[in-house]
Design a protein that fits this description.
The protein has one domain. The protein is about 30% helix and about 35% strand. It has 3 helices and 4 strands, in the order H-E-E-H-H-E-E. It starts with 19 loop residues before the first helix and ends with a strand.
């Protein structure tokens, strides 16, 4: 076995994250479906519902370089789970959807999100609670 005569002074680390421009394009082209209704909880006017975002990677072909396949969907889902801005983005989207569904601007919105990939699609599901 050969013995190393010299060692590397620097170590390299490669990190992968979603670009802001790509995330904007992905969410702009996603299909959004919301359902829910106003309800009284603990004597307070609130909204309970869900917002479902579907990203079809096949439709992103003209915008992104990566192939719209199942492997890319798995990578995208993993990177979305790790993205520090996805929670705030989903909260803002849920707020717009609550306004659209109820015609009333909520005072506060809380979401709990789940992200998964299936085939060449990524699903971002948000349980939504809003107060008025």
């Amino acid at each position: 076995m050969a013995r190393a005569q010299r060692i590397a002074m620097f170590e390299r680390e490669v990190r992968e994250r979603l670009s802001r421009a790509a995330l904007d394009a992905i969410l702009d082209r996603a299909e959004v479906i919301s359902e829910g209704q106003r309800a009284e909880r603990s004597g307070k006017d609130s909204y309970l519902g869900s917002t479902m975002v579907t990203v079809d990677l096949d439709s992103l072909g003209p915008v992104v370089r990566e192939p719209g396949d199942a492997g890319t969907a798995q990578r995208l889902a993993a990177l979305l789970r790790a993205d520090p801005t996805i929670k705030a983005r989903m909260d803002a989207l849920a707020c717009r959807e609550v306004l659209r569904v109820t015609s009333t601007r909520p005072k506060g919105v809380r979401t709990e999100i789940q992200i998964r990939a299936q085939g060449s699609r990524v699903f971002i599901d948000a349980d939504v609670e809003a107060s008025f």
